[in-house]
Design brief:
By secondary structure, the protein is mainly α. The chain has helices at 4-12, 32-41, 49-63; strands spanning 28-30, 65-67. The protein has 3 helices and 2 strands, in the order αβααβ.
Length: 81
């Protein structure tokens, strides 16, 4: 079972996720559809699909990966209808 970090790295096509030395730089970009796919494929503690999506979006914030060319902190809907 792959970890969220590995799947995000693969989707963003980056060799290395962001580190603490350059926290202001985004290192990659993935689509929101990829976020949903990762949330469905990884076994997480979230009870609902939306909870798992929020966890992956939070991981993207930490890893400095943009979602649909936007800062993941600005995503307010998290895929909810």
């Amino acid at each position: 079972m792959a970890k969220v970090a590995e799947l995000v790295k693969k989707e963003a096509k980056v060799d290395k996720l962001s580190n603490k030395e350059k926290p202001a730089e985004f290192v990659g970009n993935i689509s929101f559809e990829a976020v949903k796919k990762i949330a469905k494929s990884v076994k997480m503690a979230g009870n609902s699909e939306n909870a798992r999506i929020r966890q992956v979006v939070g991981s993207c914030v930490s890893y400095r990966i943009m979602i649909d060319s936007k800062n993941p902190k600005l995503l307010t809907h998290y895929g909810m209808k």
